[in-house]
Write a structure and sequence with these properties.
This protein has 489 residues and is an alpha+beta fold. The chain has four domains: 110 residues, Uridine Diphospho-n-acetylenolpyruvylglucosamine Reductase, domain 2, CATH 3.30.43.10; 119 residues, Uridine Diphospho-n-acetylenolpyruvylglucosamine Reductase, domain 3; 116 residues, Alpha-Beta Plaits (2-Layer Sandwich), CATH 3.30.70.2190; 86 residues, Alpha-Beta Plaits (2-Layer Sandwich), CATH 3.30.70.2740. The chain is 37% helix and 19% strand. Strands 12, 13, 14, 15, 16, 17, 18 and 19 form an eight-stranded antiparallel beta sheet that branches. It has a five-stranded antiparallel beta sheet with strand order 5-6-10-8-9. A four-stranded mixed beta sheet has the order 1-2-4-3. The protein starts with 17 loop residues before the first helix and ends in a 12-residue tail after the last helix. It binds flavin-adenine dinucleotide. The site of flavin-adenine dinucleotide (FAD) has 36 residues, from β3, α5 and β10. The site of flavin-adenine dinucleotide has 36 residues, from β3, α5 and β10.
Length: 489
């Protein structure tokens, strides 16, 4: 027989003992879904409690790994009944601690990793429908086998899940040409915080029947519901690719180069990525097999990729023409053009391995920011001046999706400082960088989201009226506040 105290809500511990209630909830959860789906063993739960960078750590009483939308909905309904917080979990590559539970031992982590079926790829309609737990890289390869392109691409694509990409409105390296995740999504299925299933899984290109509710889930970081399935746009496969790594004198030269390349290459411009000499040094120091692209060091580099559906010679000729003009105009100091797919991939590794190299180097204070593109050079020099006035020998690692006005402006400890430097300086450095971003009309989060990491800055820099509206939407979807508490809002 169940004691009365076991039925009391754990959110109101003064009403009864916490532990028995938890056990009663877990007992019901296991009864509902089975031990194959629900893990409660502390050793097995523990790997799910930290984020990719190892910066955030929390607690949870269980990890639930459903196989179907219905199982997930049943789990959420039970959590809702007992007011148990739910932490939706994708591939755990998020950089803001959004998928890491907080310190409450009541948390239940819901992982989508077993919901990983591709339901359809339609090369005529250019659509792909898949479960939220599918790995982005697998979907891109599957689209490629059907001679189509799934446009979102990022360095973590072989770990991140499409549901996580949707929940964070991921950007990546092809935004310049195809837009962010939001622009790739045609339809969404999601489980709401009360366990109802929102069925918006349509593949229509046009549907003006009132508010576009699916947009609310995109970029909501798991705070409004759990995305279970998505319908995505596919594009023509641009398998003819060529890349060039350009050495530049400064961000101002990169900007001049960009204006020229955009004008000359139009939609063939797939990516325009920027990184400084410090980033390249870090990659060369930490990545096995990485090779210096030039005989000497330059202040910064731009990686440009052009891609098309046909005619490799024409694409290469266009690239060479653009680069020789850039050399003449002084935007470019030196350049290496890829002559094969292997060389192209080697050039990309120099850019894509920066985050891994930073992780190996120790804690970095990361600022994923966006700015009006024209203001990037001025921003970079003014923010550096302000930083150096306070911490003269901090190390700066600046890279990112320059073509989208998106910089990863990362600051690390001075050469002789302890690793604890990052924790001591985190808020002061963030205040300084974000104040400068705001003064240029930029955003404190370009593509990584808010999660736990940026909540303080979110409340400081986001328009209070917009925050109030977001809170009303949150209240409407999740009145008990069980869906990913402590994240975003
Ligand atoms: C090396 C590296 C490079 C990266 N490069 C980029 C980049 O170029 N562009 C970019 O945008 N990001 C980048 N990221 C960040 C990260 O890969 C993206 O944010 C990615 O979209 C997160 O997906 P995930 O499946 O790993 O989500 P997770 O990290 O598991 O979760 C992220 C957030 O989404 C929520 N969530 C996850 N799944 C669901 C779901 N099914 N339903 C509802 N909510 C859910 C979580 O609760 C959490 O709030 C990079 C990360 C790394 C480590």
């Amino acid at each position: 027989m169940i004691q009365l105290t076991h039925l009391l809500c754990p959110r109101f511990p003064f009403l009864g003992p916490y532990q028995p209630m938890t056990q009663y909830f877990l007992h019901q959860l296991i009864e509902l879904l089975g031990k194959d789906i629900v893990t409660t063993d502390a050793c097995e739960v523990s790997p799910w409690l930290t984020d990719w960078r190892g910066v955030f750590e929390g607690k949870a009483q269980a990890v639930v790994r459903p196989l179907t939308t219905q199982q997930l909905a049943d789990c959420v309904r039970l959590c809702s009944k007992h007011a148990i917080p739910i932490i939706p979990r994708g591939g755990n590559t998020g950089l803001c601690g959004g998928a890491t539970p907080d310190a409450s031992a009541e948390n239940v982590i819901v992982s989508l990793d077993r919901m990983n079926r591709i339901h359809s790829i339609d090369a005529r309609a250019n659509t792909l429908v898949a479960d939220a737990g599918c790995i982005l890289g697998d979907l891109r390869r599957a689209a490629q086998e059907s001679d189509r392109l799934l446009a979102v691409s990022l360095a973590a694509e072989d770990s991140s899940q499409i549901g996580g990409n949707a929940a964070t409105n991921a950007g990546g390296v092809n935004v310049l040409r195809y837009g962010m995740m939001r622009e790739q999504i045609l339809g969404i299925e999601a489980v709401l915080p009360d366990g109802r299933i929102y069925d918006g899984l349509r593949s229509l290109r046009k549907d003006n029947t009132g508010y576009d509710l699916k947009q609310l889930f995109i970029g909501s970081e798991g705070t409004l519901g759990i995305i279970t399935r998505v319908s995505l746009k596919l594009h023509a496969r641009t398998h003819i690719r060529c890349a060039v790594l350009v050495a530049v004198e400064s961000a101002a030269h990169a900007l001049g180069l960009m204006q020229q390349v955009v004008g000359a290459c139009g939609p063939r411009l797939q990516a325009f990525e920027f990184f400084t000499a410090q980033c390249l040094d870090l990659v060369l120091g930490h990545t096995e097999g990485a090779q210096a692209p030039f005989g000497r060091t330059y202040p910064a580099y731009v990686l440009i990729e052009l891609a098309d559906t046909r005619n490799e010679d024409a694409l290469m000729a266009l690239l060479e023409e653009v680069i020789s003009q850039a050399l003449e105009q002084g935007f470019c100091q030196d350049a290496v053009v890829s002559a094969s797919m292997t060389q192209l991939q080697a050039l990309w590794r120099l850019r894509e391995d920066i985050s891994e190299a930073q992780r190996a180097d120790g804690p970095h204070l990361k600022h994923d920011i966006s700015l009006p593109i024209d203001s990037i050079p001025e921003f970079m020099s003014s923010v550096e001046q302000r930083l150096r006035a306070v911490v003269p020998d901090c190390r700066l690692f600046v890279f990112g999706h320059f073509g989208d006005g998106n910089l990863h402006y990362n600051v690390s400890r001075p050469p002789n400082a302890e690793r604890a430097w990052a924790a001591d300086w985190e808020d002061r450095v963030a205040d300084l960088v974000f104040a400068e971003v705001a003064s240029y009309g930029g955003s404190i989060s370009a593509e990584h989201g808010i999660g736990q990491l940026k909540r303080r800055a979110f409340y400081e820099y986001k328009d209070p009226m917009q925050i109030a509206l977001m809170k009303q939407i949150k209240q409407l979807f999740d009145p008990n506040g069980i869906m990913n508490p402590g994240k975003l809002l």
